User: What shape does this take?
Amino acid sequence: MAVRISNNQRMAAAAAMLVLVAGGAYYVGRIYPPRAGDAQGTIAPADRYHSSQVQTADVGLGDTSVVSLMQTDAFEVMVKNPSFRALATDPGFMALAQQNPQALSAMAANPQAFAALAQNPKAFASMAAQAASSQAASSQAFTAMATNAQGFNALGGHAQAFAAMAGHAQAFGAFAAHPQAFAAMAANPQAFGAYGANAKAFAADAAHPAAIAAMASNAQAFQALAADAKAMAAISADAKAFSALAANAQAFRVFAADAKAFNSAATASALSAMATSADAFKIMAANPQALSAAATAASQFAAAGSAAQGMNTAAGAAALRISASNAQAFSAMNGHAQAFSALAAHPQAFAAMAANPQAFGAYAGRIEAFASAARAPAAVAAMSANAQAFQALAADAKAMSALKADSQAFAALAANAQAFQALASNAQAVSALAANSQALASMAASAAAFRSAATSASMAASGMAAAGMNAQAFSAMAGNAQAFQALAANAKAMSALASNAQAFQAAARQPAFSALAANPAFGAMLSSQAFAQAMRN
Assistant: This one.
C-alpha cells in the first residue's frame, strides 16, 4: 500500500536536503579550495597591487616602494591618463625619471615653463649653465647679506647707490675700510669722478691731500687710505669705481647725507662682505630694484632666524651663516612644516636624517616601513649609529602621527640632499628653527623673495629677460642647478621631452602627476614589470 506524503512533509524533506548539500559544499570548499581557473563567471573585486610585508632593514627603493606607489590615488588617476601613458612608455622619459628625478619634479611643477624650452636643447643647455652660475652667485650674495643684515638693509634704502657699489664691490669695499674718506667722496662725487681714468693720480693726491680741495678737510683719512696697500691695490684694479660715483652723483649725495644708513653700511662690514663676493654682487648690480629687494629679504631671513634660535653669540652667527647658505632646505622644511617640527623634537635622529637624506627619502609614502625600521634601528645602516634616538622617535605617537600625515617630507629631504647635509653640521640650530613654525615660514618666504629678486637681477645681467626667456623656468633651474645641468647633457632624455612636449604639459596639469614625479620610487616604477602589466590593462 502506497504511503501518501503531504505537501508539508515534501517541503521539510527538501529543506533538509538543501542544508545537507550546503554543508557538504562548505566542508569540501574548506578542504579543497577552487583553483584560479575554476572561478570563471564569478564576480571578483577590482585587482589592486599589494605589497609584501616590509622588513625593518628595507630602506632601499625595491619592489615594496614601487608597489606602494602603485597603490596611491595619484597612480590610479594617472595610469588611465592618455598623456601619461604616452610619456611613460618612452625609453627617454624613463631615463629622465631615473637619472634626473629632481629636474623632473621641478619641471612637473612648472610644465608650461618647460614645454617650449625642452624643444630647443641648445637654449635649454645654455639656460641651465647660466642658472647654475646664478645659483652659486646668489648663494654667496645671500650669505653675505644675511650675515651682515643691518648694513645691507641700510643699503637697500639707497637702491641706485647700492647698485653702483655692487658693480664695483672690491673698490667700494676698500673705500669702506676708510669711512671718513669714503664719506667725503660720496658727498662730493663729481670731484672724484676724474680719477676714473687715472688711479695713479688718486694715489698721489691722497698721499698729499692738503693741496686738494676735495680732500683737505679730511687729510688724515685720505693719507691713511693712501698708505693702505691692500685698499689701493683694489682701487687701482677698478678705477671705474670713481666713474660710478660721478655717474650716480645725486644718489651718492643722498646716501652720504643719511648718516645712519651710511655709517651702518660702512661700519657693519656690509661693503667689506660685498667685496668678498664681488662677482655675485656684480651680477645682481644689473637690477637696482631687485638688488634692494634682495637685501630686504635677506634681512628678514636673518631676523626670523635669530629670533627662533634665541642666539646672538658667535654660535648663533655661525648657525645663521649655515642657514643663509642653505636657504633651499628651509624652504623645503616650510613646505612640510608639521612633519619637520615633529622631527625637530628629536634632534639627534633629525641630524642623522639630514646627514644621509637619500637613505631616508625612500620612506616617502611608506611611513609604516619607517616606523618599523625606527623601532628596530640596529638592523638599519642609516639608523644604527643613533639607535636610541630613532627608538624614541618611533615611540612618540604625536611625532609619528605628523609624519604619517605628510610622509612626503622624506622626499623633500632627498630632493634637497646637499642643503640638508650642510645643515646637519649644526643640528641644534636647525632643530630650533624647525620647531618654530612661524620663524620657519618667515625664513622660507624671505628666501623665496630673495631667489625671485636674484633671478630677476641675473636675467637682467645676462640679457635673458630681453630675449624673452622664462623667469619661472630659470628660477626652477637655479634651485636645482646640478640636476638640470645633468639633464641638459642627457641627449636621450632631452629628445624624449622634445618629442612629447604636449603630452608632458597635458599630464603635468594634473596634480597627481606632480605627486608621482616627486616620489623617489617613480623612476624604478616605470621600468618595473608590475607597471608594464598595469599599462597593458
